[in-house]
Amino acid sequence: MFVTLAMTLGLLVYVFFHALVVVPIAYPAMLIAGSVVWSFEAASGDVIMKVTKEGETVSSASLKNVVLDDKVAATAFIMGLPATALALITSVVLPFFL
Questions:
Q1: pLDDT-based confidence at 98, cuts 50/70/90?
Q2: Residue 75: is it exposed, middle or buried by C-beta count within 10 angstroms (0-12/13-18/19+)?
Q3: Which of 18, 25, 54, 71 gets the highest tally of CB atoms within 10 A of its CB?
Q4: Is 45 in contact with 94 (CB distance < 8 Å)?
Q5: How far apart are the first and last CA of the chain?
Q6: Which tens digit of pLDDT belongs to each residue from 53-81?
Q7: Helical axes 23-42 vs 71-93, angle rounded to 10°
Q8: pTM score, two decimals?
Q9: DSSP-assigned beta bridge partners for residue 50
Q10: How far from chain centre, in Å, is Cα 2?
């Protein structure tokens, strides 16, 4: 009985922490990434990337189809770009200040 009560209390604390700390930080990034994915969906044009070898097309991919095939993965990827850039910048610049 005590273990169930302790686990329930721990889960409740985690849910409140997530709702009060994690969501407000992640929500603006999710909105921006979602709007980028939505703009791909609403766009009239498309970018087609082609791989050529000796003048003939070996492979091609539509950027719009790549993004729209898996919107969740595209949104997560777009959200990860600024985080990766920030991590790279801090790992390169921070050692000069320590």
A1: confident
A2: buried
A3: 71
A4: no
A5: 50
A6: 988 889 999 989 999 999 999 999 998 98
A7: 120
A8: 0.65
A9: 60
A10: 39
